[in-house]
Amino acid sequence: MSLASPKVVNVKDLRRLARARLPDAVFDYLDGGADDEVTLKDSERAFREVLFKPRFAVATPACELSVTVLGQKLDLPFLLAPIGYSRLMHPRGELAASAAAGRHGTAYILSTMSGHTIENVKAQSPGPTFYQLYLAGGRGAAEAAIARAKKAGYKALFVTIDTPVAGNREKDFRNGMKALMGPNPFAKLPYLPNILAHPRWLAGFIADGMTRPFPNIVVPGSGPLAAVDVAAALESAQVSWTDLKWIREIWDGPIVMKGVMTADDARRAVDEGAQGIVVSSHAGRQLDGVAAPLRVLPGIVEAVGNRTEVLFDGGIRRGADMVRAMALGAKAVLLGRGYAYGMAAAGDAGIERAIEIFRADIVRTLKLLGCARIADVSADHVALRPGFRVD
Ligand SMILES: Cc1cc2nc3c(=O)[nH]c(=O)nc-3n(C[C@H](O)[C@H](O)[C@H](O)COP(=O)(O)O)c2cc1C
């Protein structure tokens, strides 16, 4: 399979290749959202309501893409977001994502729901690596993971707050994601024809040892949490503001609250000592019917942008979308499916192609806007269609 241009020119092409390689259960886990996918669809659509206002006849021979996030200088204005079960999509999963981020001078955020160890993932990248925390397995498991992350050199904790329970991802029920992750071989039988129809994925899955326990959710006294589907894993993962105080006691680095969707929560996160927030709807996979994150971004930036670092994710499918989010005040953005489609399609090479596509998009967009530096992009470069904003 060739990932070179002109066969793979955008993220839709990588999505198409991912769909061809993965069984339905895994593709829909990656691609799908909660309930009727209203938020998921609107997250992409909202970008179309942010129109550019270019300044032409400005020479921009080179473009400076670097940004500083949580004290770390990044060569790209996007970080690779935490994607649970990456190893199920490709055996190299989190290792490939971490290595790609390191090669490109940006940061990777490792999910608690990783299939590779905290230590091995960090070893792939000399650059900054951050750890995303769920309380899956309880405080004891979280404390052990935080200690390992600290020792391995992770620079910040991203605490995800939008998962008090798993969202209702109906495709996961229908396609057998639960059966695939569970120990009962008979439960997998109805899904076997579809799995067998994806032999490249299946060969990799078998060679990789199939389902295995979560190596970073180690419950004191009982060992690594057995492989389960996401709904079961998130059952004990709920985080509250009280937990944040406890996390602060055992982690002295920066803490970022991921999943902030209102100015009230943003103010609370800052008041409770968070160094950053991610405006995010968890890719439309949790509470369906919340606004597209892009619509709430301007109000949240107005509320706390001068007191904390406001990051953004959700619905980004082009580099131009990243520029739009930064014009609306995001300091940098997180890329989720945009790189995960590449990872699922072709491992390291797929992530590499995704990053190349996004980088080229950003540079082209900046030149067309008349901006020499991503840091120069501002609200003056965009206009919002009436009714865009949600406060
Ligand atoms: C398949 C998948 C798994 C995810 N797993 C996690 C996770 O384990 N922890 C977390 O905080 N966010 C998780 N997210 C959310 C992403 O970190 C990010 O917020 C989201 O993907 C951004 O939206 P986008 O996919 O439209 O770019 C996941 C998203 C997807 C698509």
CATH fold annotation: TIM Barrel
CATH architecture assignment? Alpha-Beta Barrel
Q: Tally the helices.
A: 18
Largest sheet: 8 strands, parallel
Average pLDDT rating: 95
CATH superfamily: Aldolase class I
Tell me what portion of residues adopts beta-strand conformation.
5-15%
Gyration radius, rounded: 20 Å
Helix content: 40-55%
- Tell me the number of structural domains: 1
Q: Name the CATH class.
A: Alpha Beta
Low-confidence stretches: none
Give a description of the structure.
The chain has 391 residues and is of the alpha/beta class. It has a single domain, classed as TIM Barrel, CATH 3.20.20.70. Helix 16 links the parallel strand 11 and strand 12. The chain is globular and about 65 Å long. The N and C termini lie far apart (45 Å). Flavin mononucleotide binds next to helix 2, strand 13 and helix 18.
Layout of helices and strands:
Layout: H1 11-21, H2 24-31, H3 38-45, E1 50-52, E2 67-69, E3 72-74, E4 78-80, H4 86-89, H5 93-103, E5 108-110, H6 118-123, E6 129-133, H7 139-152, E7 157-160, H8 170-175, H9 177-181, H10 185-188, H11 192-196, H12 199-207, E8 218-219, E9 223-224, H13 230-234, H14 241-250, E10 255-260, H15 263-271, E11 276-279, H16 293-304, E12 309-312, H17 319-327, E13 332-335, H18 337-369, E14 382-384
Parallel strand pairs: 4-13, 5-6, 6-7, 7-10, 10-11, 11-12, 12-13
Antiparallel strand pairs: 1-14, 2-3, 8-9
Quick rundown:
The chain has 391 residues and is an alpha/beta fold. It has helices spanning 11-21, 24-31, 38-45, 86-89, 93-103, 118-123, 139-152, 170-175, 177-181, 185-188, 192-196, 199-207, 230-234, 241-250, 263-271, 293-304, 319-327, 337-369, and strands at 50-52, 67-69, 72-74, 78-80, 108-110, 129-133, 157-160, 218-219, 223-224, 255-260, 276-279, 309-312, 332-335, 382-384.
